[in-house]
Amino acid sequence: MNILLYRIRTLLAVVPAILSIANISAGSYALYTTYILLAMLLMKASSLLPKYASLFLLAELISFAWLSYTHGGILFLMLFSTLIAIFRSKPPPLVSAGWSFLGSALLYASLQGRDSEMLFTVIMLWYATAAILYAANQVEEKRYKIEDLYEALASSHEELDAARRRMLEYASQVEQYAQSEERNRIAKDIHDDLGHRLIRVKMMSEAALHLFETDPTRSKGMVEQIRDQLQDSMERMRRTVRRLAADNDDDTRKYALDKLVAESANALGIAVSFKLQGIPRPLYPSLELILFKNAQEAITNAVRHGQASIVTVELVFHKDSVALTIANNGAIPDEPIEAGLGMRGMKERMALIGGRLEWHKSDRFSVTTTLPLLGG
Fold first, then answer.
1. Closest listed residue to residue 326, CA positions, set 259, 256, 274
2. Is-contact 91 130, C-beta < 8 A?
3. Distance CA 289, CA 292 (A)
4. pTM of the complete model
5. What's the mean pLDDT in 166-174?
6. pLDDT tens readout for residues 182-196
7. Quick one: which H or E segment has residue 105?
8. Do residues 107 and 79 touch, judged by C-beta distance below 8 A?
9. Is the pLDDT of residue 252 over 70?
């Protein structure tokens, strides 16, 4: 029971007892005072012994009704004090109705001999007070529920915030892992491709030295082949070093697809177009890296293996995924496609986040990379 209602309950018991002394004869003061003190003791007992509160409240109602019946005055107001205590214990609806009916019956009995209009008014006041107290309990219960919901919402917000931080950390780890895998692939390219080329150049150089005096023409042709091989190897080395170079602070869009389209068109001398569909959303760096690397690999393969002159890059945002399709007008292979080193690298990158790689052969050859969107 809150402090305000406790004070009202106390006043409804004490004030009527004091004001009703005017109706008490001088010889009955001591006995009347004893009755009032016993009634106050009952009120205190109901709060000290909550396990037996119902019994004490029933005793309160009966004793207050008897005092009102025997001593008159406004002692009937003491029953309203007990009514407050009953409803502040928050009984169920049927129990509340039972207490209200029982209290009204005792109140009616305590007012016997009074004016009928006063009797009707007091009974109506009793039920109005009971209804107000019941409504106050309902409002307080709803307030508690709202507070519980607010605490649950705050807890859920904290959990979501923690999950968001964990997801960002995971995305950063995935990005670092993808970059590490890409560096490993580049190292493999250097070892398998450039290393093989340099060994071949060394062998051709030795052969050219042996043929220099006996067959100058053939030796000259071999030297020219060595020059071409070295030129090609230098270009491959430049591209590899460029990919391994550290990010510049001002290069904030290193893995932007539109930038890749422009660079590919200039470097390869082909027509490359970019098309965006759906509602664009910010992507995690790891997703941007995978899309960029797969697009780069697909464009290179289109020119190297299909001799394509036109390449179309299409990025489509779906509700829960993003799809990147690279189509070209190059030669369409008749035999089944075998995944080479480049295709395997694309699949390995997507396996980190559960993506898939598909290729189609219709009027044009196309490769589609589909990645799931986190939170989609």
1. 274
2. no
3. 5
4. 0.43
5. 80
6. 777 777 766 666 666
7. helix 93-110
8. yes
9. no
